Amino acid sequence: MPAITLATLKTGDIATIVSIHAEEALHQRLLALGFRTERRIELIRKASFGGPLQVRIGTTDILLRRTEAAKIRVRKT
Amino acid sequence: MKRVALLGMPNTGKSTLFNRMTGGAARVGNWPGITVELLSGKILLGSDMVEVIDLPGIYDLHGFSDDEQVVRHFLHDNVPDLSLVILNATQIERQMSLLLQLKQLNMNIVVLLNMSDEAKKYGISIDSKKMSELLEMPVLQLSGKYGTGYQAALQAVTRALRYPTPGMAENLRSQLEQDEHIETEMARVLKHAVQIPARLPSNLTEKLDGVMLHPWLGLPIFFGIMYLLFQGIFFFGQPLQTGIADLLTWLRETAIAPSLSGLPPVLQGLLLDGIYNGVATVAAFVPIIVLFFLLMAIVEDSGYLSRAAFLMDALMARMGLDGRGFVMLLMGFGCNVPALMGTRVMRSRSMRLLTMLVIPFSLCSARLQVFVFITAALFSAKAAPLVLFSLYMFSFAAAILTALLFKGQFANSEPFVLELPPYRFPTARQMMLRGWLEVSQFLRRASTFIIAGVVLVWLLTHLPFSAVPAGPDTLSGMIGSLLHPFFAPIGINEQLTIALIFGFVAKEIVIGSLAVIYGLTGSSLGSALAQQLDWVQAYSFMLFTLIYTPCLSAIATLKSESKSNSFTLFAIGWSLALAWLVSFIFYQCARALGY
Asked: What band does B543 get if pLDDT is binned at 50, 70 and 90?
């Protein structure tokens, strides 16, 4: 099965975080915002013209760019 | 004096609480070990004066963002007697990690669970007594906005301050590395003390976002809001600005000028046209800055600024900026000064500097006055709107070009991962405090610089006193002829060069200075300009005016916000170079084409 990342999800998809492949600064920030393996993540919406994504983890809504989302591997649930 | 540090993640209502505690009596100050300034205020708690410090909101004590380093260095070099840790109760399951990191430092801590009323709406229930037992520190629930629980919190702080400060661990860094312990401890506390429903009930924020962030409607709504903001500032600001100017003129004519009439005319000129006009220049910015930040407080505190970042990021990311920079850039079209101050919402220094480099190219309302006058004098009524429109295009192009050229030099290391807070009603108190704080900072930092600059330009245009003011024999006239070989290739004559020196102070006085230089006013000045200049020269002059340094106040703000002389000089130098280059290319091409 090909690896899917947060960036490949569609609006409304719900997934589980499998792994995070980010450099240290980004990794720390993601951890602090609640990105951890096995956490449930929902793609709320995508901005037009290739803009950022809005995702929800727990009670927090987070904006991140697609380049950063591509570093987060997920499994659809 | 004992020190209380306010700590917490962004969007926890930390600053609201700080403002409530210090009641607007906060001051900006420097601290050992860190290079940024922090807000602090002294308050009476129990029978002792205590200093409360508002630290920047951080996600993680290990982090590498600018703010996270500031907090770490602050704690290291200025160990507080008490840390007041504010957690957003609606996001407790995530925010707990920061608290446990701080707990490991063995600090004296009081925990405040803010927004407990909002958490209840989400169905999140927190047993603060149980949590207090598990954490072994006082935990209090609070609604910073409505003030419930506030008195109890103050009492807890007073009580906690009676105990001596436990020592803080020597090796901060190694202490901070114990992630795993934090995670298990977090799970334990959450499991026993907090209940969160599996799926949150959809609420007003979600419904609002459905419209505000709509794929097609989002951008038109964004531009609509920006337009209203812009109109709001100038609808209310311009009459206030005129009112202040009229008041100062009245004061000058009825009180100050008569009382100085005994002095020699040169000294009168220096005091009135130099120093007093400098004060008037500073005063003119006050209403605009207050209004700008009143309205920006609404945009920011309501949570819309993050939405604007979402909508505009696709475009701005290509220029090395982020969506929030776009809001400031747009606001710069009203007035560059508050827009430059507003870049403080960006937490990454390099991105902030890049945004500050770009904002001065926004065609502000002061420059517009100059262009309206000149286009009216030199262009037909049919061509005038096109000329103005083309200048706006040049303004955008200069900003984009600058961002693209320098995004490498100001490469941003901070990832664009932002929290999207729920919509909130900003409180009137918060807005007023913001406006007041910003304007007092502007006055404290920029006023001497601006007044000194106005006096300097007055001296340049009046020394030696035997010469006709602003005439060819004054220092400014000499500078004008000295610079002539420089300005001749872009079609700007010596009189206009002197006007550009005036324009360095403020664009509002360019037309006034031309009136002094030519000894004519109003429509007769217009026709004199039309006789002396052709449209190519006039357009070249307008291009130069558009792109070179906006005004002395903008420079003073650049300097005080960047705290870097070299950056300020670079910003001035680059805008002068670009202005000359653009005017040169335009002028020479137009002449080569036979115009």
From this structure: very high
SS3 B170: coil
Res A1 pLDDT > 60: no
Report the alpha-carbon distance of residue A33 to residue B418 in Å, rounded: 9
The matching CATH number, chosen from 1.10.357.140, 2.30.30.90, 1.10.8.60, 1.10.287.4070, for A4-76 is 2.30.30.90
Distance from CA of B251 to the nearest CA of A (A): 53
Q: Do residues B474 and B462 lie in contact, with contact meaning Cβ atoms separated by under 8 Å? A: yes
pLDDT digits over A29-51, tens only? 888 888 888 888 999 999 988 89
CB B112 within 8 A of CB B71: no
**B 165-224: CB under 8 A from A:** 196, 200, 209, 213, 215-216, 218-219
pLDDT of residue B173: 46
Band (B202; pLDDT cuts 50, 70, 90): low
ipTM of the complex: 0.91
CB B587, CB B581: distance < 8 Å: no
User: B254 and chain A: CB distance < 8 Å anywhere?
Assistant: no
Q: How far is CA B124 from the centre of its chain?
A: 37
Q: What is the pLDDT of residues B507-528, one digit of tens each?
A: 878 887 787 777 777 778 888 8
Cis (ω within 30 of 0) for the bond into B489?
no
Domain boundaries, given as residue ranges, for chain A: 4-76
List the single range of B195-199, B399-403, B539-543 with lowest mean pLDDT. B195-199
- Residue among A28, A57, A60 minimizing CB distance to B63: A28
A29 min Cα distance to partner chain B (Å): 7
Residues A70, A71, A73, A74: is their CA dihedral positive or negative? negative
d(CA B355, CA B343): 7
Largest CA distance in chain B: 86
- pTM of this prediction? 0.78
- Token couple for B146: 């409505």
How far is A25 from chain B, CA to nearest CA, in Å? 6
Contact B553, B337 (CB under 8 A): yes
Q: Do B94 and A59 touch (CB under 8 A)?
A: yes
Q: If 0-12 CB within 10 Å is exposed, 13-18 middle and 19+ buried, where does residue B290 land? A: buried
Measured CA distances, B515 to B239, B242, B509 (Å): 24, 20, 10
Look at residue B178 in the predicted model and tell me its pLDDT: 55
Q: Which residues in chain B have their CB less than 8 angstroms from residue A64's CB?
A: 415-418
The burial class, CB within 10 Å (0-12 / 13-18 / 19+), for A12 is: exposed
Q: List Cβ neighbours of B239 (8 Å cut-off, separation of 6 or more).
A: none
Cβ pairs bridging A and B (under 8 Å):
113
